[in-house]
Design goal:
- A hairpin with a 4-residue loop joins strand 2 (70-76) and strand 3 (81-86).
- Helix 1 (16-34) runs antiparallel to helix 2 (43-60) and helix 2 runs antiparallel to helix 3.
- Strands 1-2-3-5-4 form a 5-stranded antiparallel sheet, with helices on one face.
- The chain has a single domain (4-131), classed as Histidine kinase-like ATPase, C-terminal domain (Heat Shock Protein 90), CATH 3.30.565.
- By secondary structure, the protein is α+β, with helices and mostly antiparallel strands.
- The protein is built from 3 helices and 5 strands.
- The chain has helices spanning 16-34, 43-60, 108-115; strands at residues 4-11, 70-76, 81-86, 118-121, 126-131.
- The mean pLDDT is 94.
- The structure holds adenosine-5'-triphosphate and magnesium ion.
- Magnesium ion binds at residues 52, 55-56, 108.
- Residues 52, 55-56, 108 line the site of magnesium ion.
Length: 132
């Protein structure tokens, strides 16, 4: 699929504040890019996936450290939206955790897997997802 870049930004900060900024940026870029066909894509799904992936960057990667941050890229195609979040890398890789009712966390990427049409990690710090 051919993806056209829409908007790029860099987001820094700590804890929930940068995630709020990512969500607002992605929704604004998505609404602008989809214009008249905004109903083709579930922006609730886009919002939730962006929130989970950005939260992971600010918890699990070096982007959480002072001076760190992420780059957020929004792309559009004839069929949907793609969001790429590039962080500073960490000791782990984004990976869906096995189901475990006893655990309080480990569900973010399960949600992304359920809602996104596709998602992945490029090996260089970028986690991406598509909602079509
Ligand atoms: N950007 C990232 N950099 C490094 N490791 C990551 C990144 N994103 C996810 N991971 C790894 O993948 C695991 C699964 O992520 P997931 O979002 O499903 O669970 P969680 O973040 O641990 O918990 P929850 O999202 O439920 O609060 C994480 O525990 C972490 O080890
Ligand atoms: Mg998570």
């Amino acid at each position: 699929m051919l993806w056209h870049p829409v908007k790029v930004t860099r987001v820094c900060g700590s804890e929930h504040e940068p995630v709020r900024a990512v969500r607002a940026f992605v929704l604004d870029a998505a609404a602008g890019a989809l214009a008249g066909r905004v109903h083709d894509v579930d922006l609730g799904d886009v919002d939730l996936c962006a929130s989970e992936v950005a939260t992971n960057s600010f918890i699990h990667s070096a982007s959480r450290l002072s001076g760190g941050g992420i780059e957020v890229r929004v792309l559009v195609s004839g069929r949907g939206l793609r969001v790429e979040i590039e962080d500073d890398g960490g000791m782990t890789l984004p990976k869906v955790q096995p189901e475990d009712d006893a655990r309080e966390c480990g569900r973010g990427l399960m949600i992304v897997e359920a809602l996104a049409s596709a998602w992945g990690y490029d090996g260089g710090g970028t986690t991406w997802f598509e909602v079509c």
